Amino acid sequence: MRKAVIVLSGGLDSTTCMGIAKEKGYELYPITFHYGQKHNIEVQQAQKVSQFYNTKDHRIVDIGFLQQIGGSALTDSSIPVPTDMEYEADSIPSTYVPARNMIFLALASAYAEVIGAEAIYIGVSAVDYSGYPDCRPEFITSMTETVNLATKQGVTGGSLSIETPLIHLTKKETIEEGLRLQVPYHLTTSCYNGGETACGKCDSCLLRIKGFKEANGKDPIAYEIKVNW
To answer: Which of these CATH numbers, 3.10.580.10, 3.40.50.620, 3.40.47.10, 1.10.1740.10, describes 3-185?
Structure first.
């Protein structure tokens, strides 16, 4: 069976990628990164998602040094998590983690080469939060070329693709696809604050709530605030 590495954060987007890769017939090999984020709930939920899909192997890799580098509201305690979802068109949100997806894909490509996978799935979107430079199609194209130039697999006749099935989808469209695939959204987390119950106020929660409402769905996770579905 063909193998695919899934960059699995435990969030809505990466879990949707799990469902898409499964539908395409891949054997799933999720990899999750503890990159120094302010909480551990993402990793915990990623483990639950992996168990749901009965994966053979789920790698959890500690790259906590990104916390030492800082520069993001997700890793630096001195930078507050935004709550207004209001960004200027040419600005990069404070939740951007410098070079995170580049590092994730580099490590995922190493894992893919070791297990003989032919694809890496990552849940980036150039539509929502398009200020992230490492979510753009140009970056994915460039990184794919780099991965195939830098690996044994790439220079000995093989190839490794980076699959981004959500890159041109809104959150609404992503959720619609996930609901079609019966993705276990009840096991996912999106909250930047990392509580047992989602805050419902941070940018990520607000975007998720908005997506479910536009998709005419009801989010199965609990929120600290009352949400009228």
So the answer is: 3.40.50.620
